């Protein structure tokens, strides 16, 4: 008697018995885990992902946030185990679940963090998929979870993410009622401190942020003095002179970073006989740090450390002895919003 043929598992045969258990969330959750564990063991990772996605989605629809997110995180883990890469389909599975995840509680962050970790490993960008970062950042922005949104919008680096970041920083500064300097720094310097500097999102953010501040409907409008041509062939065609040394500095810094020595050029060559652009950068930082005042944003230790990092990595200026060794950008963000000293104080806790 010939052996009975082994049936190939299918979505149509395995999913309906799981969903039939709803609205008993616990039973559906457990059966889904058991079924997909067998599939993973037999090498059917893609099918396991489909079942986990479908069950998670249905649980989230009936407000079972904990069970739904647990299955969503398991889905991401199976994608890692099966070495499923980032593409439109896999990304859409995650974004659909994130959209259904409750805003209250830790559930959205738990799924988002797992998804970013997977995209770092199986995407094309070591910091995580830019599209996924943008989507998550925009979700947090809509939730008014500004510190979480900021992390993802900065990590995305996409133009639309930078536009959202500018709008969010404008709202975070209470549309200019608070000093916009710390917000402008946090939306610009992280891009310039990357290696190589990420000019386009920095330009997009700063241009949009200044546009929002200068609008006649903004209370900060009166702090704009005049507009002058930048007199360079670089990105900023004009410079907005304001009463804020920080805003003025960031515009000039963006232009100066674009004039930095090309990659591979030695520090000696970059400085030439007259000090070159590196000397201009040092003078710019020194002058505006002084103008900012001892308690100003640019004079803060954490900001100075990031400027030093740009000096070293972009302009090949040797750092002072004993400098470095810290997570400079994290120190900067912590100081300006809710951490360390000065800046915007407890804004980050809002």
UniProtKB/TrEMBL annotation:
GO terms for biological process: protein insertion into ER membrane. Pfam families: GET4. One of its GO terms (cellular component) is cytosol. Belongs to the GET4 family. This is Cytoplasmic protein. The lineage of its organism: Eukaryota, Fungi, Dikarya, Basidiomycota, Agaricomycotina.
